[in-house]
Design goal:
The structure is a single chain. This protein is of the alpha+beta class. The strands form 4 sheets. Strands 9, 10, 11, 12, 13, 14, 15, 16, 19 and 20 form a 10-stranded mixed beta sheet that branches. Strand 19 and strand 20 form a beta hairpin. It is globular. It binds adenosine-5'-diphosphate and magnesium ion (MG). Magnesium ion (MG) binds next to loops.
Length: 733
């Protein structure tokens, strides 16, 4: 294998890689014994708290009742003792700012005792409330710069946990983060508010169906996380991967994913070792990781947990991303969570499986074997159809960011058109309702036999899968597939919960009106309403191929929006109807929505600015020198040939010279735009306008530089090529 010195040493390092830690032994401590050992769980609380205090805490956790602050001191003391027994020296309020990342502020338990010694202290107040300086987190104008204060507040419903480090452990407390005016500066606060809102409306529906004493309805979520693992030696040799999380250059390798030899293939040893270690750490933290497999692109994988209450699932997802990155480094690998680290092969998503359920009613989107008879299910399902149709642009907006622009609407991920896949059975039921106002049958799946006697016959699913739909019913839940691999789940969950809240409110109001409290009238009222909903909102249902050109045309005919990029999609979050909805259900105030729009545009601008500067810098200081060195080598060869009186074919030298000229031209254009438009560090004064410039000018200018560089990669001698190639990064492990 040829290559520049840095590439060769990276390859050598991969080849000589040895694991840095002793092998794990799951027979010594089984996964079951490990699970939740670092979690201040209900079980730990039951063992350590006085009965009355434990009961009070669980009332908040299970029934959503307000937290009684009087119990905080007792809980804090128990938490502290438990944490110190586990080696903790510090506690941290963990919060989720609008960057989508996880933030934490650590404080020591120790306080001077007045006699030259120290005591470990942790008061109820310190548990309940923290006060990190908020000035460096995006606030979108909510927090005036002179008022830097931000508060974190203990989220009792998401369990505290211990984070281990070889040199000590930290007690981590999930918190909500808001300004001194009480406005949400984070992703968790609106999520908690939306959980409350959806419960209120779902309870009205359950009541109509005659249920009494029902438990709190919660949104549930099970995310499937896709990611890449590549050797860190390559990663460190790629400034674009380090700083932008994706490759800004790189010609497609001769072999990509066309053989489908990666998907569900045998997991390479080192990767599997890393997965096992990651899972072990996540087990300790009580994250119920379940599934692992190879994904479609080379070096791409997926992990999914068992679903949980959406708030806990969102926190666990943030933890999962952090643990994945940390553990990968231990195995000499970098975990890439960007939506599109490599052009030309599949990008990564985070499928957000979502449903509603409660401990007394179970899963509210469970159709049973005969969905046409299951009125209650049909009502909830129709609620989703109505919500998604009415608020397709909001759903598109909450997955709009710079990374996802490389994925959505391209030919692999779901298209930017939001539609619902219902599957054959359900689509048929709703079709019957549409035609005759009621449904009298459900297509039955039957039994499948494979023609091999030793294989058992097994029940066929009532519908096939559809990978091309952005929003698919998958048997007992909906799967929102447009979420980006690197983004926080909270935005999409807040949107799903809130649009569902609005739909359920509408449905409950209609049904209450028509039945006037008479249960005998319910059946007729539901049939009429379902028919109305499917007539008004059925256009969003589509069971065909979402990638096809016909669908794009058909969707346009149906009036479904197709917002291709962030700049087209993001403005929808401040549509008057959306602002009013968030306000009505007390999920976000108009000011909070407005600030989010600012911040998300600003994030987009900052991302593109960094990418543009990196493109310029790498092209100029890494690629150009390599190209001109090779040019001078060829020119020297030409001169030598001439001196020796032999022919020299100048075509390659001419081609290279032409490309170097194009490279310089494209860099100049990009440099000019950067000079005009990128003013890092001073804040972005009109984020939406700046975003337009980024999308319409900066991005094409970057792509122009990339096009030349990728062409140069096929021309410049391999031993001069400075960056690890796609082939090396994706296939050498
Ligand atoms: P797939 O149908 O995509 O193969 P799986 O059955 O493996 O899916 O589930 C994918 C994810 O969906 C898992 O995280 C799973 O826990 C989650 N899931 C299953 N049921 C629900 C539910 N009721 N609510 C939310 N997520 C769910
Ligand atoms: Mg799935």
């Amino acid at each position: 294998m040829s290559g520049s010195a840095s590439r060769l040493s990276a390859i050598q390092a991969v080849n000589n890689y040895k694991p840095i830690s002793a092998p794990l032994n799951f027979s010594e401590t089984t996964a079951g014994e490990l699970f939740g050992t670092n979690v201040f769980s209900a079980k730990v609380m039951k063992d350590r708290l006085p009965k009355s205090v434990f009961k009070a805490v669980m009332k908040t956790v299970d029934a959503g009742e307000p937290l009684d602050p009087a119990i905080a001191d007792t809980v804090a003391a128990a938490m502290k003792d438990w944490a110190i027994e586990k080696g903790a020296t510090h506690y941290a309020h963990v919060f989720y700012p609008l960057t989508g990342l996880t933030a934490e502020k650590h404080d020591s338990f120790l306080a001077p005792d007045g006699n030259g010694g120290a005591v470990a202290e942790f008061s109820g107040t310190a548990l309940i409330q923290g006060e990190p300086d908020a000035s460096s987190f995006p606030s979108g104008g909510i927090r005036a710069t002179f008022e830097a204060r931000g508060y974190t507040a203990w989220d009792v419903t998401s369990p505290a946990y211990i984070l281990e480090n070889p040199n000590g452990t930290t007690l981590c407390i999930p918190t909500a983060f808001f300004s001194w005016t009480g406005e949400a500066l984070d992703k968790k606060t609106p999520l908690l508010r939306s959980m409350k809102a959806v419960n209120t409306q779902a309870q009205r529906i359950l009541k109509l169906f005659g249920h009494k004493n029902t438990a709190m309805v919660t949104a549930t979520c099970g995310p499937e996380q896709e990611y890449f693992l590549i050797d860190r030696n390559f990663f460190f040799a790629r400034p674009d991967l380090i700083n932008a999380g994706r490759t800004l250059f790189g010609a497609p390798p001769p072999k990509g994913q066309e053989f489908c030899d990666q998907y569900f293939g045998a997991i390479p040893d080192r990767v599997l070792a890393c997965m096992l270690d990651t899972e072990r750490e996540l087990f300790k933290l009580g994250v119920p990781v379940k599934t692992r497999h190879n994904e479609v692109a080379p070096s791409q994988y997926e992990v999914a947990p068992i679903y949980e209450n959406a708030n806990v699932a969102a926190d666990h997802q943030q933890l999962t991303m952090m643990v994945m990155k940390r553990v990968a480094a231990k195995y000499g690998m970098e975990c890439l969570l960007h939506e599109k680290p490599f052009a030309g092969v599949n990008g990564s998503g985070k499928h957000c499986n979502w449903s509603l359920g409660s401990s007394t009613q179970g899963n509210l989107l469970e159709p049973g074997k005969t969905p046409h008879e299951n009125m209650q299910f049909l009502v909830f399902c129709a609620g989703v159809i109505r919500a998604v149709h009415k608020h397709a642009t909001l759903l598109r907006a909450v997955v709009a960011h710079a990374g996802n622009d490389h994925r959505l609407g391209a030919n692999e991920a779901p298209p930017a058109i939001i539609s619902i896949f219902l599957g054959e059975q359900l689509a048929d039921v709703f079709e019957q309702i549409k035609k005759s106002g009621s449904a009298s049958s459900s297509k039955q799946p039957g039994v499948m036999t494979v023609g091999v006697d030793t294989l058992p016959p097994f029940p066929k699913d009532a519908g096939d899968r559809n990978r091309t739909s952005p929003f698919a019913f998958t048997g007992n839940k909906f799967e929102f597939r447009a979420v980006g691999s690197g983004q926080s789940l909270s935005g999409p969950l807040v949107a799903l919960n809130t649009i569902m809240t609005e739909s359920l409110d509408y449905i409950a109001t209609e049904l209450e009106k028509v039945t006037g409290g008479d249960p005998a009238k319910l059946n007729g009222a539901v049939q009429t309403l379902l028919k109305t909903i499917i007539n008004e909102h059925g256009a969003v249902v589509f069971n065909g191929d979402g990638y096809s050109e016909e669908w794009h045309q058909e969707a346009a005919k149906r009036g479904l929006p197709n917002n291709k990029q962030t700049i087209d999609a993001l403005p929808a979050i401040t549509d008057p109807a959306v602002v009013a909805m968030f306000d009505k259900y007390k999920v976000l105030t108009p000011r909070e929505v407005e600030s989010r729009r600012e911040i998300y545009f600003e994030q987009y601008v900052l991302t593109l600015n960094v990418e543009a500067k990196l493109t310029q810098e790498i092209a100029k200081t890494v690629i150009y020198p390599a190209a001109t060195r090779y040019q001078s080598e060829l020119a020297a060869t030409a001169a030598n040939c001439k001196a020796a009186g032999v022919d020299f074919d100048p075509s390659l030298l001419n081609k290279l010279t032409g490309l170097i000229k194009s490279l310089n031209d494209s860099i100049s254009k990009l440099e000019h735009l950067i000079h005009e438009h990128c003013h890092g560090g001073h804040g972005v004064s009109n984020p939406q306008k700046a975003a337009e410039v980024c999308a319409k000018q900066l991005k094409p200018a970057m792509e122009a530089v990339r096009a030349v560089v990728d062409e140069l990669e096929g021309v410049v001698a391999d031993d001069h090529w400075p960056l690890p190639t796609y082939q090396e990064m994706l296939f050498i492990k």
